[in-house]
Design a protein that fits this description.
- The structure is a homodimer.
- Chain A is built from 14 helices and 17 strands.
- Chain A is α/β, with parallel strands linked by helices and about 425 residues long.
- In chain A, the strands form 4 sheets. In chain A, strands 2-1-3-8-7-6 form a 6-stranded mixed sheet, with helices on both faces. A 5-stranded mixed sheet of chain A has the order 14-13-15-16-17. The first copy, chain A, has a 4-stranded antiparallel sheet with strand order 10-11-9-12, covered by helices on one side.
- In chain A, helix 3 packs across helix 4 and helix 7 crosses helix 8.
- Chains A and B meet through helix 2, strand 2, helix 7, strand 10 and helix 10 of A and helix 1, helix 2, strand 2, helix 10 and strand 14 of B.
Chain lengths: ~425, ~425
């Protein structure tokens, strides 16, 4: 089964709205094992919408159109669908009653324009809109093809997809197979390095495929399996996952949507240890990420953003001489930040980060992206030097990721 | 002039990534007065990408393709563009040198795979990628048409659009009229409150329109004007802007893409004052936002994330009795955080924030979203209580915005 999505609305082409509907619908289709080959966005223009609809109906089994179902003259979806499918528009009494009720409930008289929304192509199955006035439509085009129209407002569209459309597609189009996905998250390697290690796996063909995607602070390997049952698909995934783990080992920190701060939160709550952070170039980002997690106050007691040398001296006891001799961005300062914040907060662990986020503050020996990260633990000090690339925000994000990853690896004894 | 955008990448069809590139590019095209008629998203599939590219080149004058320029085997854009335009791929020595330099700068050996990124269709004008390895391409197809390929990573794509592509399009393709947009940013009011105050303006018709968009921590009013010249469009905008300023006054903090931290940075560099922050519920977010700005070390000297009562006592001198009597989330503690962090860092200003970000940590009197914010200044203390709605991340974002806004208003004497 092949599907495609058509988003209708000039506001999308003007860049006024981010198209989140396609993301939502794509995920629904993936979960049903329906292949999605195209997204097309087209404005509120009769000729172009007609052409796009006709092409979609030729090449796809399921065409989902969103938007353009409102009451204004700009909203032409119903009219063009009727033309493209050669179906008559009839006033649907059930839909009209629902629209009238919508306004009665709000004690507003129904504007005349809204009557248009009840003009529905013949043979349509109507999906109730519990939030607004535009109904959803399932329009069978022949024994095998279907055209679906949904309102463009996510709060109106999503409930009817969940309640009606998704079960309808599962029953009629989902086929006998299931798609399962699993993301492996990797940090500490560049995309090209990961690519090098799993090059052969990236060439895998369906039913088992792997894709590689680079984010600012992590690389994802996305495994997708297609099988007759969920358990078979999961077995396929597990086999590939084992291979990936063997090759990337300690660089793997999580799966699916897991973040490093979540992983760390889980470890801390098991180990009953505590943490303090002294950060410079990351400017509070590490503290902010740690405290993204509700309940982090149980292990994270203190974060210090030591942005000036004076603070580094007075509050964190970095000797003036160390700052002069090695500079604020140095191994020596990172180690002292970690040791001293640990002492100051009386925690089990102390994390110290100093670096150059750029674009200002560089020197000849100390380019943008240089970072020194240290972790002071009860009986040892871990330390590493990094060179991150990218603009200020990327350097800060990558440095915070490396610092949290040092913490994760300390617990996993993988340093 | 007609343009269209093609987004390339299976991850987009799988709903893994929200397509923000099209929004960015659409806005650029709008600002240049170039009509955009289609967005198409297609996966990493040779046949489908070829067909989509060919169709786009037939019907549009400007085709912008994003994505698929990476070094992996999935990345097929260069190859298919060469086929569709019937141009040879040549190893471009300038591009290859840039890619090699990228890896040298990071002290990583260049993986062999990256050589592919230097295979460029003949006759191409190359756009330098200052962040990553994939260059942008401007490929003239005949005297009137052009095919443009850009990397899919926004941080790589946006700088080259700003620096090179936008001026190129303006020079070669911009029509006879100009569209100018201006965003007015508002904080401290709900969307419905802003709506109430500018209801009549929201009904304005072209050539001068206003849209309202709500973000987590600010409301934007987006004014768009269309005219024969930039100066005429700007005059139209200025007239409407004056009306909006009269109605929303102190709630307006900036224009276009300005952030509160940028506004504050500008004031601090004028006033030569300094700032320290003690934050609890925002967990480092305020420090992180302040230090988003390069050069913020000149005024921001210390941030303390006091996540435990013990730290509040030992480091920030909040008496145990105050914590017991009023609780950590109280006016009294917010004021002491502000006063004491100011003293500790010897700065001109001290900001103190305490609150409940949720979902845990609430009590009967202290619901999720409660926040106390105080600003200690040389001769006075400002204080306000807030009730934010939303989940943890939204509450934290809104609290950080309110704290920074208190700072802005202090300088503008608008409290």
């Amino acid at each position: 089964m092949q599907a495609e999505i058509i988003s209708i609305g000039t506001e999308l082409l003007l860049g006024k709205t981010v198209n989140t509907n396609t993301v939502y619908l794509s995920r629904i289709l993936v979960s049903l094992g329906i292949d999605l080959f195209y997204h097309t966005t087209v404005g509120d223009n009769r000729t172009r919408l007609f052409t796009v609809l006709k092409r979609a109906m030729r090449r796809s089994d399921i065409v989902i159109a969103t938007g353009g179902l409102g009451p204004t003259v700009d909203d032409i979806t119903l009219e063009i669908i009727a033309q493209a499918t050669q179906k008559k528009l009839n006033l649907n009494p059930v839909v009209l009653r629902e629209i009238k009720k919508h306004f009665q409930d709000r004690q507003i008289p129904m504007p005349k324009a809204n009557i248009r929304q009840a003009l529905i192509p013949e043979g349509t199955r109507v999906l109730k809109n519990e939030v607004g006035t535009a109904p959803g439509l399932i329009i069978p085009c022949n024994e095998k093809k279907v055209l679906i129209a949904l309102p463009g407002v996510p709060a109106e569209m999503e409930p009817m997809v969940q309640r009606d459309l998704s079960p309808y597609l599962a029953k009629n189009f989902s086929g006998n197979w299931v798609i399962v996905s699993r993301i492996i998250r990797i940090t500490g390697l560049a995309e090209s390095q990961v690519n090098q290690k799993v090059k052969d796996l990236l060439k895998s063909k369906p039913p088992l495929t792997v894709g590689i995607y680079a984010h600012t602070d992590n690389i994802e390997l996305n495994i997708t399996a297609k099988a007759e049952s969920k358990s078979k698909a999961e077995k396929l995934i597990a086999s590939l996952e084992r291979k990936i783990h063997k090759r990337l080992k300690k660089y793997i920190y999580g799966t699916n949507q897991q973040t490093l701060e979540q992983i760390i939160a889980a470890v801390f709550s098991k180990k009953k240890m505590s943490l303090a952070v002294a950060e410079s170039c990351t400017g509070g980002l590490i503290s902010q990420r740690l405290t993204n997690i509700s309940g982090s106050s149980k292990y994270f007691t203190l974060g210090i953003v030591a942005y000036s040398n004076q603070t580094k001296q007075s509050l964190l006891g970095i000797p003036a001489q160390t700052l002069t001799q090695y500079g604020a961005v140095s191994k020596e300062v990172a180690v002292l930040l970690a040791k001293n914040v640990r002492q100051l907060a009386k925690t089990d662990l102390g994390l110290g980060v100093t670096g150059i986020a750029g674009p200002t503050g560089t020197t000849k020996d100390k380019p943008v992206g240089l970072a020194h990260i240290a972790l002071a633990a009860p009986r040892k000090i871990l330390y590493q030097e990094f060179h991150f690339h990218g603009a200020r925000a990327a350097v800060r994000q990558r440095a915070s990721q490396a610092a949290l990853d040092m913490l994760r690896r300390y617990f996993a004894k993988q340093i």
